[in-house]
Inverse folding.
């Protein structure tokens, strides 16, 4: 096991008022605690396609595989590097955009990272076959998990942060109890490694889990029941290395290796919408992770040539494309939850870019 260490890069871990370096900027926390009507208005805030790159975050020694914004506020950005490190960056105004903390504890590339629902912790999944649960603020490792398999993707169970699921190289999904480190459930019906997992609430408020695998199937599961309730497989379907949920929770898209983003309906049916697809980008061979704007009007994705694309969700037409990353793919992207035209991309050139 690799010894873990963490480095804080900011001026001080708390300010003169004793507030943590992780605290959102003062105006932001008040926005979030306001009555739901304002929150609902913000949910309806119109997004716009970003126009240019406004900042480059550099500091990883190799490519950056995944990026995640801090839940609800998006004032911090978590990155997973192929150099085995995770980093948290500040997203603030000009002059404040810098690395805040580095988390070192893997001896191989980090494949996926995920915050819990309030951002106080995150899980990193690495090719060294271990998962680590970190305290975001202090950088301490709270727990280490592993079942001798490579973890490909990780997601927290939305209703209880003490559980998270991991899609593994041995075709299984396992649920870990974060407090005990025990595996509490196995989902074993895929025939190839698991690429992506999504959670969705159905019409009755019950949580379902959707998984995709190299076996070219999408399976739908009830939480904590190890038998799928639905197989989506279609002769036209290709392998889908990543999935993204539409903010309406009515649809999700899969990044299909035939260079299309394909769409699935959620709900009673769970089926492929054959008419709806997004194309123009070239992703064959890469697990490029797409993202939606918070208002659901736009879909964005990187591609294997380092470009990023923006599509209109309703019309399915390409609105914009930019050259974003050199030497290799633009592997992942995220859209800011509150700023209507701010998005981030990362690539195997080791750079994270902020677009506005």
């Amino acid at each position: 096991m690799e010894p873990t260490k963490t480095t804080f890069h900011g001026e001080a871990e708390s300010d003169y008022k004793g507030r943590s370096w992780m605290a959102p900027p003062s105006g932001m926390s008040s926005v979030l605690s306001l009555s739901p009507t304002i929150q609902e208005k913000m949910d309806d805030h119109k997004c716009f396609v970003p126009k240019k790159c406004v900042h480059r975050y550099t500091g990883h020694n190799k490519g950056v595989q995944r990026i995640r914004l801090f839940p609800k506020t998006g004032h911090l950005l978590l990155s997973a590097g192929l150099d085995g490190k995770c980093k948290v960056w500040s997203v603030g105004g000009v002059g404040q955009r810098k690395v805040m903390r580095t988390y070192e504890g893997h001896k191989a590339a980090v494949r996926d990272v995920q915050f819990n629902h309030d951002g106080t912790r995150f899980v990193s999944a690495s090719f060294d076959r271990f998962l680590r649960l970190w305290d975001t603020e202090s950088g301490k490792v709270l727990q280490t998990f592993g079942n001798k398999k490579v973890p490909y993707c990780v997601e927290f169970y939305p209703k209880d942060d003490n559980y998270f699921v991991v899609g593994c190289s041995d075709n299984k999904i396992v649920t870990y109890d974060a407090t005990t480190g025990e595996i509490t459930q196995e989902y074993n019906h895929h025939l190839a490694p698991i690429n992506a997992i999504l959670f969705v609430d159905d019409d009755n408020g019950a949580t379902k889990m959707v998984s995709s695998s190299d076996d070219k199937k999408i399976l739908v599961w009830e939480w904590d029941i190890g038998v799928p309730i639905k197989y989506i497989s279609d002769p036209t379907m290709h392998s889908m290395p990543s999935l993204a949920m539409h903010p309406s929770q009515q649809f999700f898209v899969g990044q299909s290796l035939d260079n299309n983003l394909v769409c699935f309906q959620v709900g009673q049916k769970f089926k492929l919408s054959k008419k709806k697809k997004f194309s123009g980008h070239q992703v064959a061979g890469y697990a490029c992770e797409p993202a939606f704007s918070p208002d659901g009007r736009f879909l964005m994705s990187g591609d294997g040539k380092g470009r990023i694309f923006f599509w209109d969700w309703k019309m399915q037409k390409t609105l914009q494309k930019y050259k974003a990353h050199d030497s290799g793919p633009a592997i992942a992207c995220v859209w800011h939850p509150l700023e209507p035209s701010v998005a981030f991309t990362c690539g195997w050139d080791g750079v994270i870019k902020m677009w506005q």
